[in-house]
Specification:
The protein is an alpha+beta fold. The protein is built from 2 helices and 6 strands.
Length: about 180
């Protein structure tokens, strides 16, 4: 990881902190914004910026994800991402909401920091491929960009919880920490 990347990541984090403190669409309740002094992050970690090999699901299976407010929301499992981390091979599934337009992929996950150093409901990543993915494509998977869902900050939000198939059996000390 270059110093330039770490600096850009810190700038992006500072911008997000400003939005949380000042933006009217912030997930923080208005009465908490004045005292907000920023989210807590792990230091930028080059080992948690990996390349994943894509397996595309031509006939995506529906997955009903439980949410933080005891509802369910339906997603489609559109791809599987296989990557090496800490000397082991892992997989995460990428989803798209059944009714969603666009190519963005939603990658919710839990790891061994969940409920201790990170939010108990898991964290999210999003991938925005610049083209249609095909089997064998390689995509960057940057856990430094892993973020806490808005429901961690306010009960006004309903957030999908990572399904068990996206629970990593490793520690990922990268991205946002627990609020």
């Amino acid at each position: 990881m270059t110093d330039d990347y770490a600096d850009r990541l810190r700038e992006k984090r500072a911008e997000k902190d400003r939005a949380f403190a000042e933006d009217r669409t912030s997930p923080l309740p208005p009465e908490e914004r004045d005292d907000f002094d920023g989210l807590d992050y792990f230091d930028p970690a080059p080992d948690y910026r990996v390349e994943a090999t894509v397996t595309v699901h031509d006939d995506p299976e529906p997955v009903d994800m439980e949410t933080s407010d005891d509802r369910t929301v339906r997603y489609l499992r559109v791809a599987t991402l296989t990557f090496d981390l800490d000397g082991d091979t892992h997989t995460l599934h990428a989803y798209r909401q059944e009714s969603a337009a666009g190519d963005e992929l939603f990658v919710p996950f839990r790891d061994k920091t969940t409920g201790q150093q990170t939010y108990r409901g898991g964290r999210y990543m999003e991938l925005a491929p610049d083209r249609d993915l095909t089997d064998g494509d390689r995509v960057p998977l940057d856990f430094n960009l892993a973020y806490t869902p808005f429901c961690a900050f306010s009960d006004a939000f309903s957030c999908p919880l990572p399904p068990e198939e996206n629970w990593l059996e490793t520690t990922v000390p990268a991205g946002e920490r627990a609020p």
